[in-house]
Design brief:
Shape: elongated
Oligomer: single chain
Number of helices: 7
Distance between the termini: 37 Å
Number of strands: 0
Mean pLDDT: 94
Largest sheet: none
Length: 111
């Protein structure tokens, strides 16, 4: 939005551009933006009501959920393509967020 601070705007831009790179994380955001982690978190939280890590994770999960629903690509490939370094971690986070495994989610949707 037009009233978003430059730090938050920069972080959002980085997330939307690099989220699916498994090596991209909050430390990479901080380096790219030239600010401290606490400053970034404080500004981002004020503008978005979530931390940079929560936002990045949700962005990845949204893309992964759509990919899980849209085809028969192996779950480990969905995880990798959506920026998760480990399919085990992806499955654990997916289950926490959606209350079922990615495979169960796919089957429940008729996939």
């Amino acid at each position: 939005t037009s009233n978003t601070c430059p730090i938050t705007a920069g972080a959002l831009q980085l997330i939307h551009k690099r989220a699916f790179d498994a090596a991209f994380n909050v430390a990479a955001m901080v380096d790219a933006l030239g600010c401290s982690r606490s400053h970034l978190t404080r500004r981002f939280l004020a503008a978005t009501a979530s931390t940079p890590l929560e936002y990045l994770l949700q962005y990845r999960l949204d893309a992964a959920r759509k990919a899980v629903l849209s085809g028969d690509e192996p779950i480990r490939e969905v995880a990798r393509r959506c920026g998760f370094a480990s399919s085990n971690y992806f499955c654990r986070i997916f289950r926490q967020r959606y209350h079922m495994t990615p495979k169960s989610y796919r089957l429940a949707s008729g996939g």
